[in-house]
Specification:
heterotrimer, A alpha/beta, B alpha+beta, C alpha/beta, B: alpha+beta, Heat Shock Protein 90, 6 helices, globular, C: alpha/beta, Udp-n-acetylmuramoylalanyl-d-glutamate--2,6- Diaminopimelate Ligase, Chain: A, domain 1, 5 helices
Chain lengths: 116, 162, 113
């Protein structure tokens, strides 16, 4: 699924300059970064309600391709700047984590298999 | 030849040397509760490994383990340092801190065990998965601690070249 | 939808308060941040989380949630189990990661409300 499709499904805003055709297959959702580091696979999408800079760091080290912040939470300027520097696109949606996960699942996205 | 071209040539030479360089070592100083810089040391280490042309999977394991270790120092201790040495065969990281120490190491290694305060959990850390994560990503890991004096964590990741 | 139906369709392992599965589930909430759950979950919601600390029981009781599902096969702490049993709060465990489990709850018709 492309970033553009994800943006439409979640009625999200893209906060960083990026390639809107960027593609992902797998998703991991959590608010605990050690779990993300343990189970999220490279090249996947991370869905979280946390918006601090450590989330971007986590994505950087786990080679996560894209991040969606849910619940209308907005990251601060430094966090957005860091995600731009690390070339990790950041999207924000007003949907809850539950509905964001549900909608993407309904459209065919699946979890990182290592987590199962 | 214009000065700019000389400069570009110099850069290329430097990069090539780095790419061929098979060893490196250094140290990062870490400050407790300095959350705005949390991850900077691991990020620089990752960049060094990338420049040395090390396999991506190895770099990912090293970066994840280093980040967990770095976060532990920042969350639980006033200060510490992370030393790294890279040889053609392995990456070794030694993290020493001036923290309260760990009373029961076996318990601290248990998945889900944590002494983190509530605000740390609300930041997405302190879920008791950090040390198990380091162990999972390292080929060897050694943890020693003197309660009241500090903790030393040492881990090795073997390097396979692409 | 009753809690028992979720247990059956998702093969959840019931750890506590199995006498309380007749509760009506009003919707779903997924979060690992207690403050978020306190602020945004609704009465009767089923809460999906990785957290196993005993504070989850206090939060679920405070918000009158219908139950908690722990994902990734997370084992609840002994204190958590004890408190949940006392409060009559069902805690269930699933081997699935949160995204997959929430996706299935969503397919069963649950929403965040």
């Amino acid at each position: 699924m492309t970033l553009n499709e994800i943006k439409d499904i979640l009625r999200a805003n893209v906060l960083t300059k990026c390639d809107t055709n960027m593609h992902i297959e797998r998703v991991y959702s959590a608010d605990l970064m050690s779990d993300v580091l343990a189970f999220c696979e490279p090249e996947s999408l991370l869905i979280t309600a946390l918006t601090n800079a450590q989330v971007i760091r986590t994505a950087e080290f786990a080679n996560i391709k894209m991040i969606v912040f849910v619940q209308g939470k907005r990251p601060d300027r430094e966090t957005v700047a860091l995600s731009e520097e690390k070339k990790i696109p950041v999207l924000i949606t007003n949907l809850s984590m539950f509905d964001a996960c549900g909608r993407l699942y309904e459209k065919g996205l699946r979890s990182c298999p290592d987590a199962e | 030849m214009p000065v700019a071209d000389y400069m570009r040539r110099d850069c290329e030479v430097v990069l090539m040397q780095n790419k061929c360089e098979k060893t490196a070592e250094g140290v990062f100083f870490l400050t407790g509760k300095d959350f705005s810089n949390a991850g900077v040391a691991s990020s620089e280490l990752k960049a060094i490994l990338e420049k040395m042309g090390i396999n991506h999977g190895i770099i990912r394991r090293a970066a994840i383990a280093a980040f967990e270790a770095e976060m532990n120092v920042i969350i639980y201790t006033p200060a510490g340092m992370m030393r790294y040495s890279i040889t053609p065969d392995y990456l070794k990281i030694v993290v020493e801190d001036m923290g309260p120490g760990i009373e029961d190491i076996a318990l601290a290694m248990t998945e889900g065990y944590s002494t983190a305060p509530h605000y740390i959990r609300e930041m997405g850390f302190g879920s008791g998965m950090g040390l198990p994560n380091i162990k999972k990503n390292a080929d060897e890991m050694k943890l020693s601690s003197t309660p009241g004096a500090g903790t030393t964590l040492e881990f090795i990741i073997k390097i396979k070249r692409e | 939808m009753k809690l028992q139906e979720l247990v059956d369709s998702l093969s959840l392992e019931v750890k506590t308060a199995s006498f309380n599965l007749t509760k009506e589930v009003t919707g779903g909430y997924v979060s690992d941040l207690l403050s978020d759950v306190i602020a945004n979950s609704k009465e009767g919601n089923i809460w999906v989380t990785l957290q196993t600390h005993q504070n989850i029981v206090a939060v679920a009781t405070l918000r009158e949630l219908s139950g908690i599902i722990l994902v990734n096969n997370r084992t609840p702490d002994t204190e958590t189990l004890k408190k949940a049993e006392e409060e009559g709060l069902p805690i269930m465990v699933s081997p699935l990661p949160a995204f997959e489990l929430v996706g299935r709850l969503y397919s069963l018709g649950l929403r965040c409300q």
